[in-house]
Amino acid sequence: MNPQDNKQLEATPTVFTNALTQSDKTQLGHLPLDLFAAIDSLKKELNAVILAHYYQEPDIQDIADFIGDSLQLAKAAVNTNADVIVFAGVHFMAETAKILNPDKLVLLPDLNAGCSLADSCSPKEFAAFKAAHPNHLVVSYINCSADIKAMSDIICTSSNAVKIIQQIPEDQPIIFAPDRNLGRYVMEKTGRNLVLWQGSCIVHETFSEKKIVELKVAHPQAEAIAHPECESSVLRHASFIGSTAALLKYCQQSPIEEFIVATEPGIIHQMQKQTPYKHFIPAPPINNCSCNECPFMRLNTLEKLYWAMKNRTPEITMSEDTRLAALRPIQRMLEMSI
Ligand code: 13P
Ligand code: SF4
Predict the structure, then answer these.
(1) From the CB of 182, is ligand 2 less than 6 Å away?
(2) 49 and 66 in one domain?
(3) Which atom from ligand 2 is nearest to the alpha carbon of 55?
(4) Digits of tens for pLDDT over the chain (338 positions)?
(5) 319 Cβ partners below 8 Å, 6+ apart?
(6) Ligand number nearest to the C-alpha of 53
(7) Which domain holds residue 144?
(8) Separation of 26 CA from ligand 2 center, angstroms?
């Protein structure tokens, strides 16, 4: 595939299901009546910590020891004393936790919980892209595989991308991968020219500019807020743009009481918990579907989280060579985002 012509996401529709099949259930055994209590007792038994992203289903967010955006979760993975990390998020996030904790058991409730951005950037194509741009520093968004991290100089997240690019000398050419929308946003904020890999998030590219404008007309007091993975046609209507953690903080601190939220609606659970008197409207997708929900994040369920802890599988693994190569750019990010 020509990396500039990222058609593969539309071309290969994937069928997602988060339900356990009958054969899974037979193999796994009986589910306890009180899943929350059973998970709590497994947590003690394993000395485990549950780290969850804001896009997880409400029950998982409620049972987690720590909820955060990608940067906060990476930092939590560095700081934990637990022997087992149960990562309620997607594969690249759990992989980052493993890169930082080679001696810990890192569990992901559903190993198929991937990410369209990470999938848009294959190591072979990225190697060719890098070779076509010699002397460029590679800054990769954390939403990429360990192999891509291993080919990068610095990792960033949506909460520190601007700060990281600003710390790189002006005359240094930079490749930014894999998200073209975050890359374009960072270019606007920093005035830097970045060579962009043309990857994107299927969730954040689904929001309809027309429907957001209609909502703003119908709710004149409401402010639109957006994640930088959204297209510029959506970002231009947002009063605030930021990572999931930044969006949450903004809604909590703002005197405004109504928001149109252009990111995965899982975060609205925390927004509503923090400020129950405020009104949060999920930004609608172009089609009449639930495609504003991340199909990968939603593969994890409380049931699967229980079975993962009970059976200590599925586990995240990788070769030590890849881990060490991927660790270096993550450490650089952590040093540059203090
Ligand atoms: P955050 O780092 O803002 O939580 O973003 C993660 C993500 O996958 C957004 O789609
Ligand atoms: Fe990946 Fe998009 Fe899902 Fe985030 S919301 S995990 S970027 S597919």
Answers:
(1) no
(2) yes
(3) 5
(4) 333 433 333 333 344 566 666 556 656 668 888 999 999 999 999 999 999 999 999 999 999 999 999 999 999 999 999 999 999 999 999 999 999 999 999 999 999 999 999 999 999 999 999 999 999 999 999 999 999 999 999 999 999 999 999 999 999 999 999 999 999 999 999 999 999 999 999 999 999 999 999 999 999 999 999 999 999 999 999 999 999 999 999 999 999 999 999 999 999 999 999 999 999 999 999 988 889 999 999 999 999 999 999 999 999 999 999 999 999 999 999 999 87
(5) none
(6) 1
(7) 117-201
(8) 31
User: Is 255 inside any structural domain?
Assistant: yes
Q: Is the CB of 262 under 6 A from ligand 2?
A: no
3-state secondary structure 235-295: HCCCCEECCHHHHHHHHHHCCCCEEEEECCHHHHHHHHHHCCCCEEEECCECCCCCCCCCC
| Ligand 1 touching residue 270 (CB < 6 A) | no
Tell me if 335 is assigned to some domain. no
Is the CB of 297 inside a 6 Å radius of any atom of ligand 2? yes
d(CA 229, CA 234): 10
Q: Which atom of ligand 2 is nearest to the CA of 118?
A: 1
User: How many A from CA of 65 to the centre of ligand 1?
Assistant: 19
The CATH number linked to 242 is: 3.40.50.10800
Q: For ligand 2, is residue 93 a contact (CB within 6 Å)?
A: no
- pTM value is 0.91
Structure tokens at 310: 């009970």
Residues 14 and 101 in one domain: yes
Query: What residue owns the CA closest to ligand 2's atom 2?
Result: 201
Atom of ligand 1 nearest to the CA of 297: 8
H or E element at residue 49: strand 48-53
Does residue 289 sit within a domain?
no
